[in-house]
Write a structure and sequence with these properties.
Helix content: 40-55%
Structural class: alpha+beta
Strand content: 5-15%
Number of helices: 10
Distance between the termini: 21 Å
Strand order of the largest sheet: 2-1-3-4
CATH class of the largest domain: Mainly Alpha
Number of domains: 2
Radius of gyration: 17 Å
CATH architecture of the largest domain: Up-down Bundle
Number of strands: 4
Length: 215
């Protein structure tokens, strides 16, 4: 299986696929696109949306579809976990967390090595239309953090030690990928329990967030 992954380092949907590739220990060619590159994704799939995985010459850009294609032996139990009631409930939580995570992390993501001055300006201009000036998001950090920490208390009650399970499933990749970006926020602190959980997922997925900064 020959795999090329076009992705953004910060993107939680891209991190999903990177974690799955690591879990399956599948080698792939990593291509980190500048955020202002509209031409490449449109040429590959007809729209500006990442991740895009080109597997044996065929391109796909839905993260869960990509993971399903990679999981030949159903090791992450996608066949029984995706789109059931638990998945729908978790997906609603992820969408809720995403509002807080993105408001906390976006002002910091743009200063990582992933971004050039041009792609930084493009990203910030696009995202501020929805969220408002990044400087105001930073000033409201305590508000976003309090809302998120309340939600994360719900998550902690479901860890056994993985999400509603004693073994890692696709749910844990979904959760970890959405929370991982918070590690870039200097003031944010996970509880010891959640930090330990995220590190377990990282280890099982052979995941190195920073590796592709330097591709």
């Amino acid at each position: 299986m020959k795999i090329k992954l076009y992705h953004y380092v910060h993107c939680p949907f891209c991190i999903r696929v990177r974690m799955a590739l690591g879990f399956f220990q599948l080698p792939y060619e990593s291509i980190v696109l500048p955020y202002d590159d509209e031409k490449t994704p449109v040429e590959l799939t007809g729209k500006k949306m990442l991740p895009i995985a080109v597997i044996d010459g065929t391109a796909s850009n839905e993260s869960l579809d990509i993971i399903s294609l990679l999981d030949k032996n159903d090791r992450l139990k996608l066949s029984v976990t995706l789109y059931n009631n638990t998945f729908l409930e978790l997906n609603a939580l992820l969408n809720k967390w995403g509002e807080q995570v993105h408001s906390l992390a976006m002002p910091y993501w743009i200063w990582t090595p992933e971004f050039t001055p041009a792609s930084r300006h493009y990203f910030q201009s696009k995202k501020e239309i929805k969220r408002g000036p990044f400087k105001d998001l930073v000033l409201r950090r305590a508000f976003f953090e309090e809302k998120l920490q309340n939600d994360l208390e719900i998550l902690k009650k479901e860890l056994r030690p993985f999400y509603q399970s004693d073994k890692m499933t696709i749910y844990d990749i979904l959760i970890a990928s959405h929370l991982w970006g918070l590690y870039v926020v200097p003031e944010f602190q996970f509880t010891d329990e959640l930090h330990s959980y995220l590190q377990k997922v990282k280890t099982l997925c052979h995941f190195d967030y920073h590796k592709d900064f330097w591709c």
